Each structure stands twice: as structure tokens, then as C-alpha cells.
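haha ok so turns out i had the wrong file open the whole time. this is the CORRECT one, sorry everyone. sequence first:
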Amino acid sequence: MDQILKFETISQYNAFNKNETLHPLVNVIDLAKAGRKKNGRVSFGFYVVYFKEVKCGDMRYGCHNYDYDEGTLVFLAPGQIVGFENNEYYEPKGYALVFHPDLIKGTNLGRHIDHYNFFSYEVHEALHLSEGERKVILDCFSKIDYELQHAIDQHSKTLIVNNIELFLNYCMRFYDRQFITRDTVNKGLVERFETLLNDYFNSNKPQHIGLPSVAYCASQLHLSANYFGDLIKKETGKTAQEYIQLKVMDVAKEKIFDTSKSLSEIAYELGFKYPQHFSRSFKQHVGYSPNEYRMMN
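then structure:
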């Protein structure tokens, strides 16, 4: 495994890409200035949004490879590792918006940065832009760059952070569009999710693993937990966790009809660690205790 190149500060990454440091906590980096680069693995101590305008090979992130096409946005949170596994050289083209967590501390964006789930998506879940969306993104970058080129005054931080927030909000809108339009990628997700849950409860996995989690289901469907959750929410109007809970209750209702099994046995078969947790959850979702429901039918 090649050594991971670590960038803790914006200025370090600016220098690496031969860009001037205009602000210690934020920049819009013109990647074309970097010149010829050798592929490698890198990690950052800050947020990075890549907008690449040239296809540049097979990027590896987590357990997946991604064919990084032009016209895509990839989002990285601090501490993530991304890069290319081959040692080939390439000519970068495009931009990288980089901003340090310290820039947004005490701001509305800082308080809500966790709402932008795409910072924890896998690279193969990148945002693919239409031509119109591409123009909007470049306009946002231009506004941020304008503020960086402007002499710093009392308004600079507010305007820079507000423009970053505007950019991220546009990205949320564009992802909503992508969830709808990229049918070939997302086709049949709910059906596959339903099949996964059916197979899970028809096996002995609940007794060995417990109740299925969102993270488990996402991994089985080869998606990041947040991307999977956002897709399910768009498709069904329910969170992935709510969908799982409803499935558990549906299976529980069927099992309760089997009076040869005690309610405790049913609870353990479903994956609950304690029967009282099953009873509490069942009453919360169905309105009756498991015993009351059994007596009604």
C-alpha cells in the first residue's frame, strides 16, 4: 500500500497545487495550475469539494473504485482518504473548493454542516451535473473566489460562508434531481431493500446479528448509509430506519398468530435482545401490546 499524503492546512494544499493562499481557511483551487501529477492516496484535515472537468482514471475510496468522469462533484469530509491506486501520471483540470472547519465555527453553516449528508457519500455516489447545473456551480465558485480576491474586511467571512452555504444548498437540490433522474443507477432500490429484509427474516441472521440496521442494509446493497437513506426517503417518504421498523412489525404480526411460540421466543426470533424491548416497540407502532394483539385475532 502506498503511503498516504496528508494535508492538514489549506496552505499546504494550495502549495501542492501551485495556488496562492489568499485566506488561511478557505480557497477555490484551480487544479490546472498544479501541472502534471502522479496518482496517489491523500487525506485532508478540512472539507474538500472536487469539480473535475476531465476524466482522470480509476479513483479508489473506501472499498470501491470509481470511474471519475468529467462534470461530477465529489465531496470529502475531514479525515477521509481518497485517491488513485495506480501510479500513473495525469494532468488535473477543474477546481477544488476547500474550507477548514474553523471557518464555519459559530455560523449557521457550522451548526448545520451535518445536514449535508453527501460529505459521507462514497465517491461512486458522486453528483453528476447537467450543463445548467454546471454553470450554477461555477458561478458559486466565482462568487467565493471574488471575495477571496477582495481585500479582507468585516463582511468577508460572512459573505464567504454564506456563498459556501448557498453552493451546498444547490448541491442538495441537484442531488434530489439525481435521485429521480438516474433510474439506471437507482432502479429497483426499494424492491431490492424489501427482498433483502425478507431474506434476512427468513434466515437465522436475526438471532445471530440482531435487528437489521440501516448501515447493514446499505452495505449489502453496496451504498453508503447516508446515500442509501436519502434514496429511500425520496422513494418512500420514510426514513430507512422507519421502513425497517415497519417491516419488523409486519413480520411480528405474522409470527404472533403462531400461538405455539411464546412472545419471548418471537422477540428473540426477530432479533430483539430483550422481550420487553419487543413489547415496548410493538405497542409504540401498533397501538397494542403483543399479547393484546394476539388476543384480538
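The two ends are 61 Å apart (CA to CA).
again sry for the mixup
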